Amino acid sequence: xxxxxxxxxxxxxxxxxxxxxxxxxxxxxxxxxxxxxxxxxxxxxxxxxxxxxxxxxxxxxxxxxxxxxxxxxxxxxxxxxxxxxxxxxxxxxxxxxxxxxxxxxxxxxxxxxxxxxxxxxxxxxxxxxxxxxxxxxxxxxxxxxxxxxxxx
DNA sequence: GCCAACGTTGGC
DNA sequence: GCCAACGTTGGC
Length: 152
Hints:
The chain is α+β, with helices and mostly antiparallel strands. Helix content is 24%, strand content 32%. The chain contains five helices and six strands, in the order E-H-H-E-H-E-E-E-H-E-H. The protein has helices at residues 11-14, 16-22, 33-41, 112-117, 140-149; strands at 4-9, 24-26, 47-52, 59-72, 96-111, 135-138. The chain has a six-stranded mixed beta sheet with strand order 2-5-4-3-1-6. The longest helix is centred in the last third of the chain and has 10 residues, at 140-149. The protein binds a DNA duplex through loops.
């Protein structure tokens, strides 16, 4: 059963255009257990909305798909990385991630403001008050509604 | 195990 | 840059 997800990224650091250029990218830098656990649930072929956060117009910028699962996030072992984790052991890495591949960039970014206008999306995790998870599940109905409602 | 203090996220 | 909401840390 294919599942749907949403991944947040700051476009100034790594946006949909960067993924388009690189084609594939390991989703490193997640340092929240709940977010990591969702990545552990992902299967190859699952689709993920690519969300731009902390920027001028936050919103969903495109689509990507899971291309590899259970990847070790190497940044946890790099002392120069901002994601370095001194407590993580090579033989049992704390942080694992998935690799994602570019699928498409939406013709128009679906802004957070537009998403909030949709009553059918009111239960969406992204739109809940105080929701900061950088990796979150998206219900199939939500995925279908969004891809049908907006010109992507 | 509680909880205050601190750090981070992310919209505005 | 502000600040609300949430997560983590560490003393007790």
